[in-house]
Specification:
This protein is an alpha+beta fold. It has one domain. The chain is built from 2 helices and 5 strands. The chain has a 3-stranded antiparallel beta sheet with strand order 1-4-5. A two-stranded antiparallel ribbon has the order 2-3.
Length: 121
């Protein structure tokens, strides 16, 4: 009785490697785009949480907020951390480094409302 060869030939293995390489080349840009978008969304979430913390600070310290229309004050991330409104370590998902304590939140009075703007330094 003759034995059957169950292995793969070199041509078949090379063909499979070429196909896997092509699939990887086609899927890498989509995966990279998805990861960049996820990092951007996570960054926006961190910024929104910092602004929310600044709003909490503002509601607790209304006497320190601007009184006149167009007037602006600046509070730093380090100040919010020291006051206990923000966790100590906030990592920027884009750079994977801790956000600078010098980053600022500008609070501007516009009519009867306040606008909050985050400026990363």
């Amino acid at each position: 009785m003759k034995k059957k060869n169950i292995g793969f030939t070199l041509v078949e293995v090379l063909g499979i490697l070429v196909i896997l390489g092509a699939v990887a080349l086609l899927s890498f840009p989509a995966v990279d785009r998805y990861l960049k978008k996820a990092r951007e969304e996570m960054y926006d979430t961190h910024v929104n949480n910092i602004i929310l913390s600044a709003k909490h600070w503002g509601s607790d310290n209304e006497v320190l907020l601007p009184k006149n229309n167009g007037q602006t004050i600046e509070i730093t991330l380090g100040f919010l951390i020291d006051e206990g409104y923000v966790d100590y370590k906030i990592v920027n998902p884009k750079t994977k480094k801790t956000m600078s304590k010098q980053s600022a939140i500008l609070i501007t009075k516009n009519g009867k409302k306040y606008t909050y703007e985050f400026i990363e330094k």
